[in-house]
Predict the 3D structure of the following.
Amino acid sequence: MSRLKTLAFLAGQSAWNRRGTLGLILFSIVLSTVLLVGLERLRTQIRESFTQSVYGVDLLVGARGSHAELVLYAIFHLGGASNNLGFDNVQKVAKLPEVAWVIPLSMGDFHRGFPVVATDENYLAHYRYRRNRSLSVASGRPENGLFETVLGAEVALRLNYQLGQKIVLSHGGGDRPRTHDDKPFTVVGILAPTGSPVDRSLYISLESMEAIHVDWRGGAPLPGFRVKAEDVRKFNLTPKSVTALLVGLKNRRYIFQAQEKIHAFSGEALSAVLPGVAMDQIFQLLGNGERILFLVSILVTITGLLGLAATMLAGLSERRRELAILRSLGASPLDILLLIALEGFWLTLTGLIIGLAILAGVLAFLGPYLLVHFGALLELSPPTAREWWILGGILAAGVIASLGPAIRAYFFSLADGLNRNV
Amino acid sequence: MVDNPAGPIPAVLLTGVTFKWPGQEPLLTIERLKIDQGETVFVAGPSGSGKSTLLSLIAGLLSPTEGQILVHGQPLSALSGPKRDRFRGDKIGLIFQSFNLLPYLSAQDNVSLAARLSPFRRERAIKAFGSVAAATESLLTSLDLEKESWLRPADRLSVGQRQRVAAARALLGQPPLIMADEPTSSLDADRRLAFIDLLLSECQKAGASVLFVSHDSSLAPRFTTQVSVSDLKPSKKNGPA
Ligand SMILES: Nc1ncnc2c1ncn2[C@@H]1O[C@H](COP(=O)(O)OP(=O)(O)O)[C@@H](O)[C@H]1O
Ligand SMILES: [Mg+2]
């Protein structure tokens, strides 16, 4: 034991002495750690925040189509629906005995690339993010009347909007979308950051959505027919259709019962989807990208560790004297092997610790920034079981990489006697 | 094997030893070499004659092609690899020509390294001086190393200082045999004799036997016995022409 301590001491001192050369290697180990662990952290936290975005929603209802697409637009406000569902069906779903609440969502308009979500007061009442936090406003009020909008935190921050600001919505995404410039909206509230898709969205009422489209048909303004903003109240602003429905049940036990009933509605074909199941489909799609990123990080790590082995090998011929001195003092060839392997261990361990410290620093200082600016929820927390495995894997790989040089040193010290270079 | 069974065990005894590097002519042929306890032996021989190889053999770092080597009565061939390494660390203090020290350790740490790697020498140092640190300081003092250089890393010491630190390390824990391989060849002429006198007096205090090899025979008179590598060969008729 005291022998191992001596060897560890020597390995540390010797490595510190050659820190200039070893610094670069250390850097590549640090990089590998940051990449591998950072990626893993990102992966799990993205999944986590995905999953948390549907917290409390028991069923998603939309026109029949891909389940993954339904999740993407209903929860993440990404892409668009090809079909809507009629408002009569919304009321039918709401009246089912199993159903506690429904949140109708109507989408398709944008403002400067941010999605506009038309919904009603149930959104504020029942939408939950990150386990069970409900939405709140950072300034202004959450209720929006006709031609009024409440902004997600990121929208307000990026576009530098204040309360009272007048904004114009555009119809659909695309490069040169048609605008609703005849009916501008006023910002009446700005939501607090949530780290969820809410931050990137603008909220209006279903009536407002209907109002800006009274003089539109099939995605284009009716030729020769204009309704002024002040005249829209003369029209019936009850929505005729919505894009999707978020449904909360009185009891999750009724989930399949409710699903079956909705599927059995006559008239239009509806999908009622369990969000968790649809989420899994999305994760499977993401899985390929994740695997490629993981593979690239593994390659970076292997390159780094090959560099470690090469640098240690190159240094050995210079260190033969040092090794001969240790041999003369009673070190066995096995001690020499251990000494070199310990150097690899120290180096890798130091790289791991520095890498983790950098990651922790990034998470602690940039976490809140990332939350607000990129909607990425990255929290500082102790390594997960999988992260421990990754760390252990890097350490083991570092020691294995240094075994090559170590075995070479073993044979040097067997063959050299006192003659070479001493 | 031992000439005088009643007498003390010799520090080193080689009988019928030959050594040959792979793919080379036999380098060493030693019929008999005996070093008594407390004896100081000077081995002369030109460069390349096999002096360093001889020391490696006695240190158990190389094994003879033929013959037997006893160090303090212990046949080296009877020891397994790790035991032989341990035996060397315990019983032999080695000083080299140069590059004696680990450049990244201080003078003091270089000396105490001998005790770190040999529990036997560690115990002896503690027994004699109370602690390894005290033993180290005492040796560095008697070898004339200025106190301010004790904590300096070895690569910032002068050549003369390095050799004295190396001598202190060889002497720490009083190993019974000190072997030196041309330790003075990097010192200037007037420093050589001073270093040898210092080393020999310390060895004498510790009661250690000394095996000192050098190609510079002007140093020979300081030692009790002088031999030349070529003298050790068996009588001419067997040797190469
Ligand atoms: N590690 C080695 N491998 C092979 N041959 C060696 C090695 N070391 C020394 N030799 C051979 O042994 C000869 C004597 O070397 P050495 O013992 O160092 O002589 P000296 O110390 O007297 O100068 C060298 O000329 C060389 O041919
Ligand atoms: Mg030599």
